[in-house]
Amino acid sequence: MDEEVDLKHNEPILEAQQLTRHFGGLVAVNQVSFTVNKHEIFGLIGPNGAGKTTLFNLMTGLIQPSSGKLLYCGQEILKLRPHQIASKGIARTFQNIRLFGELTAIENISVARHIHINSNVFTGVLGLPPAPKEEQKNKQKALELLALVGLSGRISEKARNLPYGDQRRLEIARALALEPQILLLDEPAAGMNLKEKQSLSKFIRQIATELNLTIILIEHHVPLVMGLCDRIAVLDFGQLIALGQPEKVRTDPAVIEAYLGVGS
Ligand SMILES: Nc1ncnc2c1ncn2[C@@H]1O[C@H](COP(=O)(O)OP(=O)(O)OP(=O)(O)O)[C@@H](O)[C@H]1O
Ligand SMILES: [Mg+2]
User: Fold this and answer.
1) Average pLDDT of the residues in 122-135
2) CATH number of the domain that 123 lies in?
3) Which of 53, 178, 200, 249 is deepest in the core (most CB within 10 A)?
4) Which of 115, 90, 264 is nearest to 185 (CA)?
5) Which residues line ligand 1 (CB under 6 A)?
């Protein structure tokens, strides 16, 4: 156990340095610096509008920073396109689920794998279907992922017909189809009841262990974050106001004032 903790604390995988993003006069992310270590489950919390999703958008190349640096395995990634960042090993889910509603569960995963795997070979560039052997491998992998997220019984269901919790799980499976090293989850428990939240929490821990993942989790449900995360960063009005282990963050006066005091 001690060894595991040491390992988590010694190997940086993602490093934000003075990361800043303005939207007009608003500073959505303001001089934010932190390091996420390999195999950590790292929580990102803060009130609505604190800048959490903006931080994910910066990390995945959807938007560019106004200033600052972002290092992944020691390399600057802020200039990369979203698909380049994804193929380097950073995958995400979205706060507002973004599945292809008319496609089945398995098709949603296969599409993600095709884009990922073929992005640097001719078939992908030309829009050609992959070779049958590759296709078979993709299908097998997609079935494994659906089993992992507990959706084996729903492979042929259209995404839009799945219950909400299953859609969230399917989105996680789709992100995992990119075979990431870091998985960014933007409010994966939103809209779930307590039982579903508890089961999701177990599931996140399970995939982190089984797939050797580093996970960054944005979540408003404080007990879930506190129970699951190794460390937690707290944002408020774009600024990092606390960073540390759950117990330390829970009792930090600035956090209590900005966030935990609200509604708890
Ligand atoms: N594309 C954009 N254009 C203008 N303002 C934006 C844009 N994206 C985010 N913002 C603003 O930046 C701030 C941070 O937004 P962000 O979505 O990152 O917050 P959040 O912490 O994810 O909040 P929530 O918990 O509600 O999801 C907000 O004031 C938001 O209105
Ligand atoms: Mg958000």
Assistant:
1) 62
2) 3.40.50.300
3) 249
4) 90
5) 23, 26, 28, 46, 48-54, 95
Task: Note down the domain range covering 149.
Answer: 98-179
Residue 13's Cβ-side half-sphere holds a number of Cα atoms within 13 Å equal to: 23
Question: Is 189 in the same domain as 85?
Answer: yes
Q: What are 31-78's pLDDT values in tens digits?
A: 999 999 999 999 999 999 999 999 999 999 999 999 999 999 999 999
Distance 165 CA to ligand 2 centre (A): 18
Residue 198 has pLDDT above 70, yes or no: yes
CA of residue 139 to ligand 2 center, whole Å: 32
Same domain, 155 and 30: no
Last residue of a domain, one of 147, 179, 211: 179
The reported pLDDT for the residue numbered 222 is: 87
User: Which among 145, 179, 213 is the end of a domain?
Assistant: 179
Among protein residues, the one whose CA lies closest to atom 5 of ligand 1: 23
Closest protein CA for atom 12 of ligand 1: 28
Q: How far is the first Cα of the chain from the last one, in angstroms, to the nearest whole number?
A: 32
- Partner residues linked to 244 by β-bridges: 232
